Amino acid sequence: MDNSQWVQSRRDMISQYYVLPPVAQQQAEQVFKKMEQIAAHCTDQGMFEQQMAQSPVSQEFNALMASFGQYAKVNGQSMDQAVKEMRQEQAASAVQGHIETMVEQEVHTQIVRALPDEVNAIRSRGILRSIPVVGSIVQWFDNFNYLRRLFGMGRKDNNQQQQM
Questions:
Q1: pTM exceeds cut of 0.70
Q2: How many other CB atoms are found less than 10 A from the CB of residue 7?
């Protein structure tokens, strides 16, 4: 008969799900001592569980569990660790997003510089729209892309954002 395991399982549960400060740990230990006193008078675990269910110690333990909610671990780590990890991930993704944006802008700038002045004039001033057949086609594509963006089916084109 190893009645220390009956109380130890409850201790393990607390340590698995909570990171307790010293004051809360002392409160838990007081309740565990009362559980050990009950376990000392029991011959098997079934008897211990019945005694616990009928004892006010069970209600004390449940009240402790409810009050320890603020010390709960998140995904196996303390709340402070989880917040720190989340901040690190956000910082890394912000840096990555900034780098991607800068690279995209630089590529766009280099492409614009590489194009002949006539092509850039057509792009920036909308000269294509003034050509009878080509202008209708360009307008149709612009309307189509606008509807796609309106209904969330496409990314905004950076060129169109700059023209607006």
A1: no
A2: 21
